[in-house]
Specification:
The protein is an alpha+beta fold and 518 residues long. It has one domain: Creatine Kinase, Chain A, domain 2, CATH 3.30.590.20. The protein is globular and about 65 Å long.
Length: 518
Amino acid sequence: MTDVDLVDRITSTLAADRDEFNAAVGEERNTLLSELEAGTFDNPQANIGLEYEFYAVASPETDHHQATTDGGGHLARVPRQLLSMISLEKELGLHNTELSTTPQPLNEYGLRAQQLETSARVYAAQQLARVHGIDLASDGMWTIPPAGETAREYLTATATEDGICIATNMSDSVRYHAMTNADVPIGTHIRAPNVSLETETVMPESLITSIQPHYQLPQAADLPHYFTYALRIAGPLLALSANSPFFPPDLYDDGVTLETVLADGWMEHRIPVFETALNDPKAAAGKVRFPMDLGSLAEAVDRLVADEPLLVPDPEETGRFDDAFAHLRHKHGTYWRWVRPVFDGPSRAAANVRIEFRPISSQPTVADTIAFQAAFAGLLEAMPRAEHPVRSLNWHYARENFYAAMRDGLDADLRWITNDGLETQSNERIYRDVLLHAEEGLRGVGISTAVIEQLLQPLWTRVETRTTPASWIRARARAAGEDGADIEAAITTAKREYLRHQRETFHEGSFADWPGVE
């Protein structure tokens, strides 16, 4: 049986008038541009924030299905009443949850606050979840399905009520179910090396989890300049962060072996999952894509206006300042660029323009997560102020860097322009230039050298050891295969080893402390 109230709410959402919505967006465009020109969205300093996604797994101590024989790690549905108790937000799947930090000024105390808030809230959630036999896992893609189910069964299970298709394992968020039933075409499938999955809903997106660092600009008019740099650093940071090298084994095509998956697979499959699950396969340019450079602040607004929304609800009055452009702000929800500008303002004083950086998978530990948040912020502080020459790197090369990093991680052939204006494809020079400028940006906001070294050491270690979480997991799967494991056993063994080390180091260590990172 489906939830009748949920079906009614979905039907009501789908019945909204698209022409009225688009007319309201057109009017709000002028309001937003006027406020931007008036300086309403300017701030005295940069601020930072973070979105952090997790998925739930059965803990090895309490996985009653096979705890004594296989070490747990099965995907787990989070009880809705538990979710309301752990101060985290529901996400697409019943197994997903998300944390959003409180924005803080970009300085030493602001970054420390981000790390402490993340640890405090996740630790509290973990303690309560473990009472219910659940752990919160942090990586780019789950690979061990719920006990007694295959991943394919879990992702494709549906029910239909009054013509509305309901994904059985999707949260009760009207938005996600309405996306599936909207008239605007989307992918609802997965295409990746040796993987093909057809579904009726957007549930394939629930395979993946990410972190999304935010950078609020001091001056809104500078958005195009900062955006240019955010696109140039996307490839190198994606390569450093790779953490989704495998799919659940039953999603691979029949007869595919571990050797084939290791030979053909990519380092960051989160990228193609998001793109193929949500993009209309017939569209020339999907909603999920690497965006073009911006020519002006007005162009950023006009791109948002022109983007076809999947849903067109009538936003309710909330008493916020940005109610004045509520329809336009709603469009952010399906404006799925890998790097995107967002116009936000709970109050006039708090109005801001931020850049959300969306390519990075969830990371092994809090320290690794904050390292990427700090690096992203530091780079956006240093590079625009120094007029770093990489701004002149052709956009097409920046895009090629992004997808090369997706495929090959730290082994990707990237193009870069160093601080002295020299073009290079040397990974050593590229990552050194990137991380040194991240340090410079953090130093420029008053952070001490010792703290900077502590913040960014997880990333320096990845460069020095040529090891990312993705390459680490692949090495564990390869070793299991050499010991005789088939594709399912090898991928499962590697993920359980990952989860075991994560439990040991999540709050008080980093990926750099794991065996094999050397």
